[in-house]
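I have been asked to look over a protein record a colleague put together. The record follows directly below this note.
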Amino acid sequence: MIQELIINKKNKINKKELILSEAAMLFKEKGFGGTSMRDLAEKVGMEAASMYNHIKSKNEILELICFKIANQYISQLGEIENTNQTFQEKLNAIIGLHVQLIIEDSASVSVANNDWKYLSDDKKEQYKETRKSYEKSFANIIEQGMQNGEFKKMNVSVALFTMLSSLRWIELWYKPSREISPQELEDDLKTLLMKGMLTEDR
């Protein structure tokens, strides 16, 4: 009996993960507003009524996708912050983090970037605060690198949002069919983005 409950719980989790994965792709393709629960049910091969055993609503799906991505960025940035690396190495690691997450789950990243505005008011505010927290931690690394003499002195916000906007376009452009590997993409971005940051003696 216990074993059966464990198997049923695992199947339910796997089905929920499938729903979230397929929903992210549909939201990216059709937009959150243009996707219905019926569309999603057809995509995952379920009856719409059965899907409510796993997900309460389309809004819950959006919340789960947005906060999954936001929390991944936050937790992995925290790991980078707590290393003994130089600020240059930390910034390189952050660039790698963005490339990795976008390539591994571009649909979910696209939803988090573009459809968060459809979150309920309280969840929207929570999501915006999460983003601000990430941006603050990112900016602190840039600022500390400037104070340490690793990075050129410049406006921290200009540096931060130039880097973020340069990384964001990857999910719009990159496809596995591109004639560039994920590693080559990451290396090229590090070269381009870090060149303007590093002091001449680096």
